[in-house]
Amino acid sequence: MATLEDPFGKVRPKLVAARTEFLAELARFQAAELEQRPSPEDWSALEVAYHLYVVDGLTLQEMRRVQEEDNPELPALETEGPRVTRETARDLSLDAVLAGMAARREEILQFLAELPPAAWERPCHHHAWGALKFYQLVNVLAQHDRQHARQLVEIRERLRPRDSGTSQAASANSSLSSS
Questions:
Q1: Is residue 56 part of a domain?
Q2: What is the largest CA-CA distance in the chain?
Q3: Which residue, 99, 84, 112, is CA-closest to 23?
């Protein structure tokens, strides 16, 4: 079986870049906006950040399973992650969420750094994606971070709508006051 050369060296920059992209988008929020939801059914920016923390933990558990079990069936993290996030997102603070995200991602990177190249080829099975190799599961984390970085852009745009009606009203008011 052919193995990847330095798989950790290849994936680490992707994981770091994707997380940096997410954090850059999160930093563009005003403090007062972090907990605002664009609608009652949507998450706030802080809840999205907490979700990444939760999913990193769930994914680390599954990565360990792939290394310990033969071809394990992975749970539906795409539904499990949001469920756990909704059930546990209480009294969130930005500092606590950021610290948790950093610690959890460091734990993942440390775990991955210690794996031999052959371990990255271990198989697993996902209910929707079918047969996967370990390295493909790891790459999903970077995709997940980028997906939620885009979500933060959408949340911010919805919280700060470009309201042309407001500028028109201001123009009308200034015209009336100068008459």
A1: yes
A2: 83
A3: 99
Per-residue pLDDT tens digits for 19-59: 999 999 999 999 999 999 999 999 999 999 999 999 999 99
The residue-averaged pLDDT of 120-140 equals: 95
User: In sequence order, what DSSP letters do the residues of 103-126 get, joined into one string?
Assistant: HHHHHHHHHHHTS-GGGGG-EEEE
Average pLDDT value over all residues in the chain: 90
Range of the domain at 114: 7-171
Is residue 179 situated within a structural domain? no
Task: State whether the Cα torsion 157-101-21-127 is positive or negative.
Answer: negative
CATH value at residue 115: 1.20.120.450
- Domain total of the chain: 1
19 falls within a domain: yes
Strand partners, 124: 132
- 177 vs 115: which has the higher pLDDT: 115
In a domain, 178, yes or no: no
How far from 112 is each of 17, 63, 108, 109, CA to CA, in Å?
16, 9, 6, 5
